[in-house]
UniProtKB/TrEMBL annotation, chain A:
Listed transmembrane segments: 21-44
Record key words, sorted: Membrane, Transmembrane, Transmembrane helix
Name listed for the protein in its UniProt record: Uncharacterized protein
Automatic annotation (TrEMBL), chain B:
Origin species: Pseudovibrio axinellae
A Pfam entry, by short name: Ferric_reduct
Subcellular location: Membrane
Membrane topology: Multi-pass membrane protein
Gene3D superfamilies to which the protein is assigned, alphabetical: Rieske [2Fe-2S] iron-sulphur domain (2.102.10.10)
The gene coding this protein: andAb
Domain called Rieske: residue spans: 236-332
Name of this chain's protein: Anthranilate 1,2-dioxygenase ferredoxin subunit
UniProtKB/TrEMBL annotation, chain C:
Keywords from the named record: Membrane, Transmembrane, Transmembrane helix
Species this chain originates from: Pseudovibrio axinellae
Keyword Transmembrane helix: yes
UniProt protein name: Uncharacterized protein
Keyword field contains Membrane: yes
Membrane-traversing stretches: 12-30
Stretches for region Disordered: 35-55
Superkingdom as given in the UniProt entry: Bacteria
Amino acid sequence: MAKKKPDPFFIGWAKKPPKSLHGFLFFISAALVGAAAGVAFGIGSSLPDPGDARFAWGAGYQTFTGYVDAKPYPLLRLPAGEGGRSKPHAMLISGIGKRGMQQLAGPLSGMPVDAGGILLKRGNLDMLQVGGRVSLRAAETPVPNFTPAQAEQLGKWRLTGEICDGKCYNGAMRPGTGLAHKACANLCIIGGIPPVFVTVTPLLGQTFFLLADENGEPLSSDVEDWVALLISLEGEVERRDDLMIFKVKLDSAKQL
Amino acid sequence: MSVKYVPVIWNRTKLFYDVIVLAVVGAYLGVYIYVAPMFQTVTRPIDWDIYKAQAFGTCVFYLLTFILCIGPIARLDKRFLPLLYNRRHLGVITCVLAYFHVDFILGWYNAFSPINRYVSVFVVNTSFDRFLGFPFEILGVLALLILTVLAVTSHDFWLHFLKPTLWKILHMGIYLAYALIVAHVALGALQSAAGPFLTGVVGASLALVTTLHLLAARREHVIDTQINLMDDTRTWLDAGDPMEVPDKRAKIISLTEDERVAIFRNGTKLSAISNVCAHQNGPLGEGKIVYGCVTCPWHGYQYRLEDGTSPPPFTEKISTYRLKLENGRLWLNVKALPPGTYVEPVISPMLAGGS
Amino acid sequence: MQRNFRKAHRAIWFTLAFLTPIILGLALMMRPTGTHEQQPIPLDDTAKSVLEANQ
């Protein structure tokens, strides 16, 4: 039989692996390093776009004067002209980190306020992360001749989309949506950040809806079970200035 | 084969092995973190912490897939055996990288909240009754727990303390960890944060690992189901023509109700010993006679052929078996002798021709 | 013992080799693909009139 045929046998504690294996081992090592680089490049370069959401640090500390609505979740009602917009604007607000503004906004609800902080922006959407020198306080000089308009009722709808937390979606995190982000979104909602519904197709040009329960109150903690899934929801839609509010029965939620 | 325990025994092979592993990890993380972003089509980059978490997480998956391929591929092609030699270091490195992944995630998605970040992993999503939406983080935690236990018990101290069989059973936990990680990825990253490439890689990795293991399992099954003729006393088994045993190598015989036996040939001498290495139950019959001793293909443990005992100062012992030669055929006594029993090798003049 | 170990090893592998791809396959199949009902659907008269006024 084959006494002369090479019969390489690797022994770990030997000084060197058998000569006939050198080429093979070198090839395997190179292939592994190459494959690692290739896979890393493939995955890293093909990640989906997390969108144009961001903290507008460049704009610096911003102050706004308007009214505050505490329900369903704290939001500012700003007159036309404020923040460079030609029409009145309803803007969500949050505290720093995963904290809502209920404590400060509650006692001031319906009153003129000054609010200061850093803006989060996603396209036309924005949110104010309230903090710093001004924070949220009764207005020192209220805007004259301005009271927020009544909400406009747009009827009952069934909409399809995903529940997110308003802050991460607006720019606090990229990506700020999807199941991988669900724990973060739930932490935000638990902390008082408004839950929002982002629809797959727009209603009257809007895909961004602030969520509330049927009575316009904050949602119960049951909402956490539905966050980050593609679902359909039914409820009344109302519009405050340019902000859509979707007053839903969570019982109507269906996973798609 | 240490007679006393030191934290890690280093040799040239292990150093080389670790250098290559670090090169693989370095190439992966370096390209992912610093090169790939230049080629992304994103409006704004993914958050730095999340991006690094993805880099480490996918690297862990890549390494784990590789680790799980080593066993079966070394069975199917012996040239891959050097990859198996220091696999434990690879496992420990993988476990460390997994902790980085967790740290980046907890420091971002689970941070900035009044709820403690470690507590939040367990309490913030309780949709245990859902498939999509299941708290996939828990699956990752379980896998990490397994990886940690395996990394901690990877040292030879634990191997001797638990005995090889129990240790191997414990370390089969890596399969469960891999399944958990696949589910963790499938219900997490693949649902939203992944591009098509990642989805393809995960699918291909799982297919590769599964196929290699099924192929290796079929091979083992064939060996286990081989039928050998017994004599009338049912103590001697026909082990075939001695010419079938290659010089310095072995022929593996599967005993019906018991273990596998390796019949080794050293020149004209034939000896039968247990196929199971005392260190990690490696397949001695796939080893070779080096410096007059049978050498295990996994970690190079050595045994003398005639008494199944490691040369001093080592003390490992394995069972030996009696052989006899009758009418040009080799017969194996199926009763294992106590480990370390001396058996005179059978000499077959037929083998003298150097065949 | 060795034989049982190998058997257990194979049994574990056969189980996981079937279970894991099934989980992965299911998870990928259930991913929202965009083929689901997507248009906003009006559910009362107010909503219908809003829809008509905006068409």
